[in-house]
Amino acid sequence: MPSGDMAPAMVDIGIPEFIRDKTKGRPHVFVLMPFGARKQFYRRMKEKVEQEVGLACLRADDVPAAGHDLLGKVHLLIERAEIVVADITDANPNVFYEVGYSRALKKPMVLLVQAGQEVPTDVRGLEVIRHGIGDDEDALNELAEQLKLRLTSRLALLRDMLQGDKPTPAYVVAAPKHRPSSVGDAIRHTFGDNLGILGLISAFGSLLGESSGVELLSAEHFPLRFLDEEANLYFIGSKQVNTASGEMLKRLQQGRTPDWYIGAELPSEEVGSYEEALWRTYLGRRMKFAPEKREVTGASICVKDRGIVVRGPHPAYRDRVAIVLAGPTTLGTGAACLAATRSVLLSAIQAKLGSVRIGDKRKTIWALVEGEVESPSSALQVDGVKVLDAGAYE
């Protein structure tokens, strides 16, 4: 292994592209082994990891390094890995250096060592899998299980929340728009529907790679008959801007309580452009969650609002999911979108759900969230979103 500093200019130009080419944009496991060693065992490991764990599997000699700094390449592969696997059987100095670098980055790690060999004291706190001389299917099965347990909470939560048993095709249905120009500087930040679009596309890129198959469809041109398509459907915004969103919300709830509704107090008031609120009906009692606004340069701007996240099996296809992310205003919708696509907020939803697991796609779950900005010109941030309540329909 060459010593010395990595060469950022050389690494940044080519190796990331090589990694993306090899992984197709998927998260990867990086395997620390001496170059060219135990090729048959590594081939079987790669098959096992990619087929059963769903992550790409690489070691350094999978990625060309001609013209690039070798140490920089290894650093980058470790930095971008979800999990690191290290075969320390031969006590190779390069492998132990890479183990140390991985530990400094606090990467989840699993060690492999041949049966009968001692494990160095410095790494005895890590998970160790002992294997035989050959392919050792039992060791590879154990490795697959350990990798599943060590998938980052971010990816695991995103997969649990967003991905159907059959993840594609998937359609994000939204009506992104700018805020009114009267708000001045506030128009510059990403808001509402845009947060959901960016969050979902980013999440599916992490989960499925470049070939995610996710399409963005215009809410304005989305025919209601497409609700019966065999696909995963993700609706952003209330029915005033996304008619299909309101219809799917009804289908997911199926008349069960609590019943969530976004609209005017009376259906007769829902004509043209109208003021919306979030309504909850439970045990015969109807409760209103109204947006909180502030006057700015002659315009009434929302600074706090609630939104809802409702996710369940597609009403017609149990191996697909349908999700509604919506609020009365762009702030409420933005809060719902962040709650469904950020791991820290998904963890908060899971805590509110208790014994019901987010990953149970047989159940329809809901979450009430609140978004607040410090000023009308501020962008909504993750720390400005709270999960107020969550539950599951029986």
Could you characterize the architecture of this molecule?
The chain contains ten helices and 16 strands. It is an alpha/beta fold. The protein folds into two domains: 8-151, Rossmann fold; 156-392, no CATH class. The strands form three sheets. Strands 6, 7, 8, 12, 13, 14, 15 and 16 form an eight-stranded mixed sheet that branches. α7 (193-208) links the parallel β6 and β7 (214-218). The N and C termini lie far apart (58 Å).
Sheet having the most strands: 8 strands, mixed
SSE arrangement, N to C: HEHEHEHEEHHEHEEHEEEEEEHHEE
Distance between the termini: 58 Å
Task: Report the average pLDDT across residues.
Answer: 84
Tally the structural domains. Answer: 2
Q: Look at the helices and sheets and give the structural class.
A: alpha/beta
Tell me the β content.
15-25%
Q: Per the principal axes of the C-alpha atoms, what is the gross shape?
A: elongated
Low-confidence stretches: 1-13, 180-190
The percent of residues in helical segments reads: 25-40%
Work out the number of β strands. 16
State Rg. Answer: 25 Å
Q: What oligomeric state is this?
A: single chain
Q: What's the tally of helices? A: 10
